[in-house]
Design a protein that fits this description.
The protein is of the alpha+beta class. The protein has a 4-stranded antiparallel beta sheet with strand order 1-2-4-3. Helix 2 packs parallel to helix 5. It starts with a helix and ends in an 8-residue tail after the last helix. The model has no long low-confidence stretch (mean pLDDT 87).
Length: 159
């Protein structure tokens, strides 16, 4: 349910929805192209048949990547890019659920909360911006030992 103001805003933005979807697709395409071939780094995809705005660009950084997700976040922040650790923490770790131990192990949730990263999107971004960000990730992975040494154990900003 929406109040009248929210409904009016939604209706006024509906006319530009197709343009927004095309813009978001171009951003995701630039990320996909720039990240292609990087070991352990994969842009998460939605099924093509699903009708979505494509607003989020979520990347999984698994154990095959030369740098872990948190190290990549620190690199991007140092380059004035604002990534987000996506799906972190898992809901079972948030109040009020954290007070009780999970009844069953949640290994997939735990893994995803450690490996997913959301990259910037939106109308303020261009495909060239996304390609630049993907290039920063690629260069950081190419220089992984030097990057790890420079980062040390610094926490991820915004934690």
């Amino acid at each position: 349910k929406m109040d009248e103001f929210s409904a009016a805003m939604a209706l006024s933005n509906l006319a530009g929805f197709d343009r927004l979807c095309a813009h978001n697709r171009a951003i995701r395409d630039a990320y996909r192209q720039g990240l292609a071939g990087l070991p352990g780094i994969r842009l998460c995809e939605c099924p093509a048949a699903d009708a979505r705005s494509g607003h989020y660009a979520v990347v999984e950084v698994d154990e095959a990547s030369p740098l872990r997700r948190d190290a990549l976040c620190r690199v991007l922040v140092a380059e004035r890019v604002t990534p987000r650790r996506y799906f972190r923490p898992g809901c079972h770790r948030c109040p009020p659920y954290a007070a009780d131990a999970p009844r069953h192990p949640l290994p997939v949730t735990e893994r995803l909360s450690q490996t997913l990263m959301q990259l910037p999107t939106g109308l303020q971004m261009t495909p060239d911006d996304a390609a630049t960000i993907a290039g920063l990730i690629a260069r950081a992975c190419d220089a992984a030992p030097r990057v790890e040494a420079a980062l040390g154990g610094a926490p991820v900003p915004g934690s």
